[in-house]
Give the backbone structure.
Amino acid sequence: MRQVAFGLALLGATAPLAAQAPTTPAQLAEARALVGDAVATPQTLVLAAVPRATGPRITLFNGRDLTGWSPWLGYPDPSVTYRDRPGATAIGTSRSTAGDFAVRRIEGRAALWVKGETWGALVHHADLRDYHLRLQYRWGAKRWAPRLGQPPNNGLLYHTHGAPGAVFGTWQPSVEFEIMQGSTGMAVAVGRDVRLRTTAALDPSLVSPPVRYRHGGRPVEIVNGTLIWNVENARDAERPAGQWNTLDLYVLGDRAVHVVNGVPVMVVEGLATVDAAGKRMPLTHGSVQLQSEGAETWFRDITVEPIDRLPKVVAKE
């Protein structure tokens, strides 16, 4: 499962200024022009033809220590993260991160603990392609500014490439399987050089952007710095706070399926990077990151196994 590491030239990244903001009439009109007037209605989506592993399962978290993982921390004050000119220097690896990421016991088992106060990530060393990743997570009790009063937020970032801190001084360019209360499974482009496509329909109830994944919906491209910098999950399949959730990420080349507690909630394709000249290059492999973004989070049972096809996602009538 370990591939040759790689890197790509990075473009500048700007903040998703619409994050957590109500949708304006102009944004709603722009979204309608992209996905049409039809409003997303509930769909019952199921997995079919789930692939069998083509090789041995590999454990990414050994339950003892952070072997195989490298920490990176953003700015001392996370509130400056999304500014084009934050006026601060990222912490990076300049101080001990033992109080930010650690292995601790919860409910009688070892788990990977993310404090969440300082934003950043744990980046796994393996460069992965064509795999099924599974992990369990649950929220801890602690929340930190500037996300106090907001839904707890974290993320599983995959096809990670480029330099540490290249995105907002805090993360590496990647595709995000969002872990956020109510939005787990959302697809996000992390970094200005990242592109991905999905299908969507209008959902005016959402904060900007007002679009939700729809099986059979209109094709849209997700690009950081535009209105469609993310697309919301098909539905909320997360369990109540305090319970463990299981995420399954199926990746094959430049396509992926996000599954939350057995429910498929997102299908993406056309994963790519663009260079300074706008040339598009398929994004087919990379490492994974576990975010730290304002909420205490526990992770356990992190495994990957190789696959040679994706599961099918079917909409039941």
Notes: Confidence is low (pLDDT under 50) at residues 1-18. The longest helix spans residues 25-35. The radius of gyration is 18 Å. DSSP finds one helix and 21 strands in the chain.
